[in-house]
């Protein structure tokens, strides 16, 4: 099978530790990119030196861009704008690529009508916290018609990128979701490449987990993405908060009952998704759900307020 030439795009910032696993997985691909462009948003660690070293050893051309102060959307746009080839593949330095990833995610472009290829990402979960997080927060399958590929595993034509207006540089979070929605809005043809897999390590701490979901929800609020889903989350959390406040002021004896019900629901959900796991994993379920849903609620409310006051409206 003959593959068309492709430009591999990666945006980085302070990724020195992750590059030690990511870059070898790029060099180990069964199909090399015609060129690789890495844009650095202004790293203050050893990222730039690590990239220069990789450039000198890579078995394919590597171009490095330094864009001090650029967010991930601007970094990607600048790299895509300088790409020599009509198809670009996007991934993230926080991942490890399967050896066949680039070959599989570019193969569908042999058909001229294909404009966007969605790849898969599989969670890497070594600790109990990571295993429970993956089970409770990641969709079990991308095989549904409206799957929106993450910037961890996607490829598209430069023509489609231009049609969608590029990544939204006014968004610091959730830029890949907004870009996907713009591609769909402009009628771009999507296909799924199920064998195009990257491995994505889950957050290692509760603080990192909060930051991940708070940032994503804030970006969705700024972009007015998935408002109905967030309204549902907010309404559930509002009911829970009112129940707790009602218990505190009127029926304190109800508080233990409310807590037990929440814990049981959380554990049952975790057991359903991880039936072979034990209490070491399930015990994280109440904490994860509380942290994730609270972060999503607060992040989306803040993002919505920011959109109303200063953000660009979706579609403009």
From TrEMBL:
Residue span(s) of domain Glycosyltransferase 2-like: 8-120
A molecular function GO annotation: glycosyltransferase activity
Record has Membrane as a keyword: yes
InterPro entries the record matches: Glyco_trans_2-like (IPR001173), Nucleotide-diphossugar_trans (IPR029044)
Pfam families the UniProt entry points to: Glycos_transf_2
Alphabetic keyword roster: Glycosyltransferase, Membrane, Transferase, Transmembrane, Transmembrane helix
Protein's recorded name: Glycosyltransferase
